[in-house]
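Tokens help. One example:
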Amino acid sequence: MTIVEHAWCATTPRKPVAVQDPTLGSGLKSVGSALDVLECFAVDGELGVSDIARRLGVAKSTAHRLLQTLVSRGFVEQDQTTGSYRLGIHLYELGQLALARNALRHAALPTVRQVAKATNLTVNFSVPEGADVVFVERIENVDGVRILGHFGRRLPSHCTSSGKALAAFNQTVYRARLAAGFPPRLRSTVRTPAEWEAVVEMVRTRRFAESHGESFDGASSVAVPVLNNGTAIASLSVFGPTEQVKPAVGQLVPLLTAASNRIARNIGH
């Protein structure tokens, strides 16, 4: 299985609203600008001052001031050899706190571990966030570490089985992706609103979603929604080599569905 390092989209770009909104005070604009800087690192591991300035449409001096403020608080750190910047350890600390305090993740974790053990595949537990899907828990098999270890935990919903499962049973997710559009990731990725509607309708009928070569070459996933009063609040999926996952869809779906029902019951308790 190979990975496309130059994948065309890894996340849905956020608009730098704070910089453009004239109704916001200068203090709030500065906060928004600092957050926009952090968003620049969603795809790239390291960036220079010129890169940040160009992406935000600001002067290099402004970008430098923003970066230095973030460095002083530990949200960004600078490589003293290259001069480039990357996300800092304090941001990691806060992210880990957010993850540890996520009640939905805690309710799902025992079942996610059971699915990983039963399938020997990478298992993702995901939640929606705007037009994207965020993997709040991931248990990787040996291959999964190599495949996903250096990738982030967010992907556009139209590229993943998890996102499709969410969109099929959550109109907010469906409409958010429709409004954001369908930037291609690989050749098999959904490209148009008509394709999106057809895929989501199929998932509603079958009650599970598939993705074959849409996020990563040679990789497939199968997902089911986790429902609360009929609305998908999360999804559970397995991921692995296409030659391993695709022939086993018939066996994986009942297992995932039973696991999803257990998670839904745990959430209610």
Remarks:
- The beta strands are 76-78, 85-87, 122-129, 132-139, 154-156, 209-212, 219-228, 231-241.
- Residues 1-9, 15-20 have pLDDT under 50 and may be disordered.
- The radius of gyration is 20 Å.
